[in-house]
Amino acid sequence: MTQAFDAAAQQALLESRVAAALEQARKLGADACEVGASVDQGTGVNVRLGEVETVELSRDQGFAVTVYVGKRKGSASSSDAGEDSIRAAVEKAMAIARYTGEDPASGLADAELMATEFPDLKVHHPWHLSTDEAIELALACEAAGRAVPGITNSDGAGLSSGEGVRVYGNSHGFLAGLKGSRHSLSCMLIAGDEQGMQRDYDYSSVRDPALLASPESIGKSAAERTLRRLGARRPATGRLPVMFAPELAAGLVGHFLNAIAGGALYREASFLCDSLGKPLFPDWFTLMERPREVGAMASAPFDNDGVYTRDNVYIDSGRIASYMLSAYSARRLGMTSTGNAGGARNVRIEAPLESQQHLLARMDRGVLVTELMGQGVNGVTGDYSRGAAGFWVENGEIQYPVEEFTIAGNLNDMFANLAGLGDDVDTRGSVHTGSWLIDGMTVAGG
Amino acid sequence: MTQLTQSPLDEAIATLLAPGGLDAEALEPGLSHALGPGIDYADLYFQRSWHESWVLEDGEVKDASYNIDGGVGVRALSGEKTGFAYSNQITAEALAETGKTASGIARSGSCLDRKPVTVSSAPLRYTGIDPLSGLTAEDKIAMLKLADRVARAADPSVSQVSASLTGEHEVVMVRASDGTLAADIRPLVRLNVSVIAAKNGRRERGSAGGGGRYAMSRLRDENAAERYAKEAVRQALVNLEAVDAPAGQMPVVLGSGWPGILLHEAVGHGLEGDFNRKGSSAFAGRMGQRVAAPGVTVVDDATLDDRRGSMTVDDEGTPGAYTPLIEDGILVGYMQDKLNARLMGMAPTGNARRESYAHLPMPRMTNTYMLAGQDDPEDIIKSVKRGIYAVSFGGGQVDITSGKFVFSASEAYLIEDGRITTPVKGATLIGNGPEAMGRVSMIGHDMALDTGIGVCGKEGQGVPVGVGQPTLKLDEITVGGTQS
Q1: How far, rounded to the nearest angstrom, does the alpha carbon of residue A194 sit from its chain's CA centroid?
Q2: In A, which residues are within 8 Å of B69 by CB distance?
Q3: Which residues form the Metalloprotease TldD/E central domain (chain B) (predicted)?
Q4: Which residues of B touch A61 (CB under 8 A)?
Q5: How many angstroms separate the CA atoms of B444 and B450, rounded?
Q6: Are B243 and B211 in contact (CB under 8 A)?
Q7: Nearest residue in chain A measured CA to CA from B89
Q8: Of A12, A292, B52, B273, which one is least surrounded by beta carbons within 10 A?
Q9: Nearest to A101 among B61, B280, B406 (CB)
Q10: Nearest Cβ partner of B70 from A57, A79, A199?
Q11: Disruptive mutation site among A41, A55, A67, A258 for chain B (greatest number of B CBs within 10 Å)
Q12: Cβ–Cβ of B66/A93 closer than 8 Å?
C-alpha cells in the first residue's frame, strides 16, 4: 500500500507552476506577486488493543497566491495545485485586489533581503515503510506499554510517516523549494483504580527515521507516565513555586515568542509592546534562534517571504534584544525583517542547567506541573491562568500526584521569577528546553 | 407553488460530479472499488467548498482572500478496522484508486451485497444557498467599515479595531453501501469584531461576533456590525477596570448563552460514542445513572433552524436529530456515528462529522444546550454570599478519561452579598465533569443559545458547533485567580 513519491520531480513540477502563475499575474497587470505551493504525502496507522484500528493514506496539495496592484492586495488559495486551479486562483486574487483598500506597508519583502544561498539542511529523510511494517511498529509500541502491570486499557498507538515539498516564488525573481520529512510514533494508555481512570502518553517525532525512539521505550514510558498519575489528590490553595516539565516550558517560550512577534506588536495586542532593550528574564538567561541548524526540526534557509534566515538573539542576558518580524510587520513598525515570516525556527537557550533533582531540592515545597489545560493566556496583558496536573513536592522530593488545580500569574512576573533551568532538555520540537522552575505563582486547588 | 430551486441532490451531482465528467451512475462502480473482500461497510464522501474572508485593520479592508477546496474521501470498514484514502480530484480514476486503497484494510472474506439506494428525505434545517452571493464586495467592505466607525466612536480609549467577515458555501454528498444517498448544501457566515482599549497605562482586548447557516445579507439586515462593535468595546472597557480574580473553591454563577461551553466540556465530549465504546470516558458504563443534579436536562440538537452547529444530514448521510443526553440528571444517551453505534448495538444519532473529505468522520457535537429551569436569574445572584459571576468565556478543554475540564472566563465579576460588584480579570475554572454537574443547584428560566462563534477541536479536526444554557449556579468549583 505504499505510494511512490518522487520529491525532486514534485519540486520541479511545483516550481514550474509557481513560475507560470507569477508570469500570469504579471500579464494580468499585477505590480508584484508571490506564490506558495506544497505537496505532502504520508501514511498513518493506528492500532488499539493489539488490533489494527485505522490505516490512512494522505496526499495533500496546497497553493496560495497574493497579488499586489499598487498598494492594494488580493489573495486566493486552493487545495489543488493543478494548472487550471492555479490559473483560476490568480484571476480571483486580481479581482479581489480591485476592492481592497490601499496599505502603505503592503508589498513583497525588499529584494536585497531575498535568500541567495540554499545549503542542504538535511531535513528530508524519506522512509520507505510498508503499511505492514508500520503496523508492526505500532503494535510493538502498544504491547510494550500494555505489558506494564497496572495498565487496564488503551487509547492505542499510532505511527505516521510523511514527506513533502514546499515551493515559494515571487516577482523579485526568487524561486526556491524545500523538501522535508516527518515521522512519529506515539502511544496513549489508560489505568484505573477505585478513584477513577487516568491516561497519559509519550511520543517520538523526528526528521530522520534512524533517530526515532524504539517502540518499546515509547510504550513503556507512556505506561509509566499513566501509572504515576493514579491516586491523585488536590493541592491546597496558596502561593508556591511551580516547576514546568520541559514540554510545558517550551509552551512558555511560545508565549514569549508570540508577544515579540511583529503582528502582535503593531496591533498593540502584546504585553511586550515597546520592550526592546528592557529586562524580562534573569541576567543569566539568553534565548536565540538557529534556523540553519543541520537536521533540526524547523530548519530552513528562507522564511515565508523568501527572506534569508539568520541566527537571531531574542533575549540577551535577560534583556529583550530583538523582535521577531516578517517583511510586513517590520514595515508597520518602521524596522527591518528578521527573517521570521512563519515564526521562529529552532529556538535554543543558553543558561546554567541543573539536574531535575537539584531543582526540586531548591524548590523544597511546591508543584511540579506535567500537564496544562485550556487557553487561559491573555497575550495583551500577559495574565496567565491554566488548569494543571502534576506532582506535589515537599522537602525537595516528589510526594504524590496532584490534579484539578490551576496555576496563575502574569508572564512578566513569571519570566522575571525564573529561578532555574533543568538539564532534562526535550529535543523533539522546534524549541529545545529543559524544566523551568518559577517562583511565586498562585496555585488554586481544594 | 412553483419549485424554483434544484433539490440538494441534483445540485450536488451537478457541482461535485459533473466537472470530473461523472454522473450519478458513476457512484455505483466507485462504491464497488471500496467494497473489496471482507469489507462490511464503505462510503464515498464528496465535498466542495468556497470560502471567503475580508479583514479590516486600521480602518481599511487591506486583506481579503478566497479559498476553493474539494475532493472525495473513501472509507472502508471491516469490523473495528477502518481503511481511508482521499483525493482532491473527483474522477473515475481517483475513485478507483482511493477505493482500492481503502479496501486494502481487509484482504479476505466475502463481498458485501449492497442495499438498494434510499435517497435521504431529511427536513432542511437551513436554506441551501450560496451565502457569499447576495452582497457585493462593496457591501461587505461597508459592513466592516461600519463596525470600525461604531467601535471608535463608542469610547476614546479604543486604540485598535479589527473586524472580519467570513463566509463558506459548502456542498457535500454521501453514498454508502447501506443504501444511503444524501446531499447537503451548507452555508456558514460569521462576523467578528475585536478591539484594544488603552487607559491609564493598561491595555485590554474585547471581542464579539456571531453568525450562522444563512446569507451574509442577514448579518447586514440584523445590524451585526454595529451590535458586535458595541459589545466588543463594552467588554474591553469592563476588563480595563478588572481587579485580580480570587483563587480557590467558591460558588460560581454562569450567565446564559455562550457559558454553555461548560456543558460542551464537562459532559458533551464524555458522551461521544467512540470514547464510550473504548471505555476511555469517565462516563463509560454509566447509562441510566445519575450524572448531574436533579433538574439538569442536556440535549444535543442538530435540528435548530439556521444555527451554526445544525445539520440537515450529518457527514454519513444520517438526518440531524434532537438527542437527549441527560434527563433530570440521569444519563440517557450518547452521540453516535454509524461505526460506534453498530459496535455498541445502538442507533446512529446523526452526530457523525468530519472537518473535510480529507478527514475521517467521528461522533461530534452539534448544538449542545441545557433546557431552562424555574429560577429567576436575579434570585440566583442574590443567593450567593461571595463568589463569581462569569458571563463570557475564551475556550475550554477536557480530559475525557479523568473527567477534568477547564474553561477560561474572559468577562467575570465578583458577587458580594448577593450583588454583582467589581469586574475581575479572566481566570480559568477547573472541575470534574460528573462532580461539577452534581453541584448545579439553581437553573434559570432564561435559556439562551450563543451568537454562533464556536469551533470544536477533536483529534486535530475542527467543526462549527453551538452551545447554550440558562443562567445557572454551581455551588462550588475551583477558580484560578491570583488572589489566594
Answers
A1: 37
A2: 78-79
A3: 131-240
A4: 88
A5: 16
A6: no
A7: A80
A8: A12
A9: B61
A10: A79
A11: A55
A12: yes
Superfamily of domain B8-240: PmbA/TldD superfamily (3.30.2290.10)
- The C-alpha atoms of residue B368 and residue B466 are separated, in whole angstroms, by 6
The pairing of beta strand B41-57 with beta strand A32-48? unpaired
Instruction: List per-residue pLDDT tens for chain B, 484 residues long.
Output: 334 456 899 999 999 999 999 999 999 999 999 998 999 999 999 999 999 999 999 999 999 999 999 999 999 999 999 999 999 999 999 999 999 999 998 878 888 777 889 998 899 999 999 999 889 999 999 999 999 999 999 999 999 999 999 999 999 999 999 999 999 999 999 999 999 999 999 999 999 999 999 999 999 999 999 999 999 999 999 999 999 999 999 999 999 999 999 999 999 999 999 999 999 999 999 999 999 999 999 999 999 999 999 999 999 999 999 999 999 999 999 999 999 999 999 999 999 999 999 999 999 999 999 999 999 999 999 999 999 999 999 989 999 999 999 999 999 999 999 999 999 998 999 999 999 999 999 999 999 999 999 999 999 999 999 999 999 999 999 999 999 8
**462504491: which residue's cell?**
B31
* Measured distance CA(A207)–CA(B234) in Å, rounded: 48
Are A56 and B84 within 8 A, CB to CB? yes
Specify whether the backbone of B10 is left (phi greater than 0), alpha (psi in -120 to 50) or beta: alpha
pTM of the model: 0.96
| Of the partner residues B62, B80, B428, the one whose CB lies closest to the CB of residue A385 | B428
Domain A7-227 belongs in CATH node 3.30.2290.10: yes
The rounded distance, in Å, linking the Cα atoms of B220 and A413 is 44
Read off the DSSP letter of residue B34: H
Cβ–Cβ gap B62/A155 under 8 Å? no
Is the ipTM, as predicted for this complex, more than 0.90? yes
DSSP B162-215: EEEEEEEEEEEEEEETTSEEEEEEEEEEEEEEEEEEEETTEEEEEEEEEEESS-
Cell numbers describing residue B61: 479592508
3 state DSSP class of B428? strand
Find chain B residues with C-beta within 8 A of A132's C-beta.
none
Q: Are strands B118-119 and B180-199 parallel, antiparallel or unpaired?
A: parallel
In whole angstroms, give the CA distance from residue A213 to residue A234.
34
Question: How many residues appear in chain A?
Answer: 446
Q: Which chain B residues are closer than 8 Å to A1 by Cβ?
A: 101, 104
Measured between CA atoms, how close is A350 to chain B, in angstroms?
31
Q: Which residues of B touch A155 (CB under 8 A)?
A: 278, 280, 401
SS3 B261: helix
Q: Where are the domains of chain B?
A: 8-240, 247-480
Contact assignment for A375 to B85 by CB distance below 8 Å: no
Closest CA to A26 of A77, A79, A65, A61: A65
**Dist CA B56 CA A310 (whole Å):** 32
C-alpha span between A202 and A221 (Å, rounded): 6
Element (H, E) at B68: strand B60-78
For residue B83, list chain A residues with Cβ-Cβ distance below 8 A. Answer: 54-56
In which residue ranges of chain A is CATH 3.30.2290.10 found? 7-227
- How many Å apart are CA A300 and CA A120, to the nearest integer? 9
